[in-house]
Amino acid sequence: MSRTRAARTGAKPRGMTIELKRVTSPPTLGLVLAGGLARRMGGGDKARIRIGGLTILQRVLACLTPQCSGVILNANGDPARFADTGLPVLADSVPDFAGPLAGILAGLDWAAANEPACEWLASVPGDCPFLPKDLVPRLHQARAAAGTPLACARSGPWRHPVAALWPVNLREDLRRALVDDGLRKIEIWTARHGVGLADWPAEPVDPFFNVNTPEEAARAEAIAVQYSDA
Questions:
Q1: Counting beta carbons within 10 angstroms of the beta carbon of residue 70, is it exposed (0 to 12), middle (13 to 18) or buried (19 or more)?
Q2: Which of 30, 88, 175, 215 fits as disulfide partner to 68, beta carbons 3.0 to 4.6 Å?
Q3: What is the tens place of the pLDDT at every residue in 107-119?
Q4: The domain that contains 20 carries what CATH number?
């Protein structure tokens, strides 16, 4: 199966044994921001850290794939290190490692070029092992309820601007903000357009818990053991 076909059909990454149950929402392309480096854990990709017997990336893809019409990855550097997923791997659309917004723009550009009928992109970080299985439909509900073009997740008092929904038709505005204005902070740009909030409880398991340190990896492992459905 080709990489493009894998993205369109939501193909299950090789080596994954999690059952996938599809969730219905408007056609939405999933984007995993998978390029975070585990510098505080000795190097390598954070997405490859194993939690509960699976890598974080496997857990993220098992969650996101059933919710989306296809899935793509954003990561700079050698894309071959993600070849085992069978998914397209996109580098940033703008130079100088401009942060998550650059990865989101790369996903919006890919959607416009390869999935012109798809109007929405849902992004998630590649270091969150417990993402909610209803993330994408809940984001759509939040933006519809708020009457805004954008939506992001919130757990307890914490917003998660990378776990968000983006309309493809705002990609040129985002490009201008990145290239012409030098903007880097997600919430400054989203505030210009309006963003709905989709809420989740932060207890007993924060679905947006992310792994940056060995201590957080150990905590995530304990959560995976205690809450097997997380």
A1: buried
A2: 30
A3: 999 999 999 999 9
A4: 3.90.550.10
